[in-house]
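in:
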């Protein structure tokens, strides 16, 4: 057991191990990349390697510290315990006074966006000022062992005033603590935070790696493994949780919206489709936009007439090819710019339906 068990993004694993070996561990790391590629998992494994009682640049998985930090692998059940302890009907002051901190060993904390309630979690769980203040106080304590590690998952959910509190920690970095921020992209954080972190961008995994992980960790079989790995676009985390049929359907729905817009006809149906998509509250807006990005990336390859394109949406190859014949690269670029705008809007709580309607309408006008 150790860092070599981590699948994918080997370059990042090697860089982290090198830093541990040379005893030059940065005070702040920033892990970015799509969801489900192992950013949290590697942060937890790094925390084990930074605190293991037996090894310096890896972890044994057997010492008491390793075993306790390993419990952070399942944050969901720890969040459930934390919320149960605080009480289902905590008010805002209580939420800040009793910050949700996941801790299975004194030297390693995981801080995740606080969903506040167990039964009906808030729509947008976020890292709260109480949590960040708790990290701020604890970061300057001497570690029990070699180092303290604070994992901040969903760092992009910090409100900007909370981010400023966090910035203070980075401005006076504690001597023997490492903070690991996890976010989808550096653009979702204050530039002043990003510039103080050593940044590692996680790439999606090759399909064969995703399939290998699915074989090891799930009961899925043959064709279902292949399809799930295809649909997950290099994200084993997504592939594991995925409802394959539903995911395939969501892509078809998104492709139908693009196709109708490109054809510039059937507006009533086009807006009925965007309305249906806006109502799907089980898929986050960001996830829906990622589906559009995936389709548009494929379209870009097809409309650029690249030989043997590596399509992300192989099961939809026929439909994508048909669509690529009625749009040009400029249309696709405009569509991507439109999705970029919605992505920025999603952070500001842009109304989903208005956003999708505006995108579909602008593509139809210019089709
Ligand atoms: Zn150990």
């Amino acid at each position: 057991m150790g860092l070599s068990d981590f699948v994918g993004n080997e370059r990042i694993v090697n860089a982290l191990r090198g830093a541990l070996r040379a005893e030059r561990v940065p005070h702040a790391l920033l892990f970015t990349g799509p969801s489900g590629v192992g950013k949290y998992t590697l942060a937890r494994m790094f925390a084990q390697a930074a605190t293991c009682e037996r090894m310096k640049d890896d972890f044994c998985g057997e010492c008491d510290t390793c075993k306790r930090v390993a419990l952070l692998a399942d944050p969901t059940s720890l969040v459930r315990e934390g919320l149960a302890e605080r009480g289902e009907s905590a008010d805002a002051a209580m939420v800040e006074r009793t910050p949700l901190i996941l801790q299975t060993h004194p030297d390693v904390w995981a801080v995740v966006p606080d969903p506040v309630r167990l039964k009906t979690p808030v729509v947008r769980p976020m890292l709260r000022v109480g949590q960040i203040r708790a990290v701020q106080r604890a970061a300057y304590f001497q570690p029990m062992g070699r180092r303290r590690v604070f994992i901040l998952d969903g760092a992009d959910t910090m409100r900007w005033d909370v981010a400023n509190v966090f910035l203070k920690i980075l401005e006076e970095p504690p001597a023997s603590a490492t903070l690991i921020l996890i976010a989808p992209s550096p653009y979702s954080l204050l530039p002043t935070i990003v510039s103080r972190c050593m940044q590692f961008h996680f790439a999606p995994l090759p399909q064969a790696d995703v399939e290998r992980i699915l074989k090891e960790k799930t009961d899925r079989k043959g064709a279902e493994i292949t399809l799930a790995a295809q649909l997950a676009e290099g994200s084993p985390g997504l592939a594991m949780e995925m409802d394959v049929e539903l995911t395939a359907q969501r892509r078809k729905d998104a492709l139908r919206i693009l196709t109708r817009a490109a054809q510039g006809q059937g507006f009533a149906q086009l807006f009925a489709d965007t309305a249906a998509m806006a109502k799907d509250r089980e898929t986050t807006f960001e996830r829906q936009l990622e589906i559009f990005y995936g389709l548009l990336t494929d379209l870009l390859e097809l409309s650029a007439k690249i030989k043997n394109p590596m399509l992300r949406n192989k099961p939809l190859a026929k439909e994508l090819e048909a669509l690529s014949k009625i749009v040009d690269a400029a249309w696709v670029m405009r569509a991507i710019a439109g999705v970029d705008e919605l992505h920025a809007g999603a952070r500001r709580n842009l109304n989903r339906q208005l956003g999708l309607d505006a995108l579909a309408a602008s593509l139809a006008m210019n089709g």
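note: Residues 52-54, 59-60, 62-63, 65-66 surround zinc ion (CB under 6 Å).
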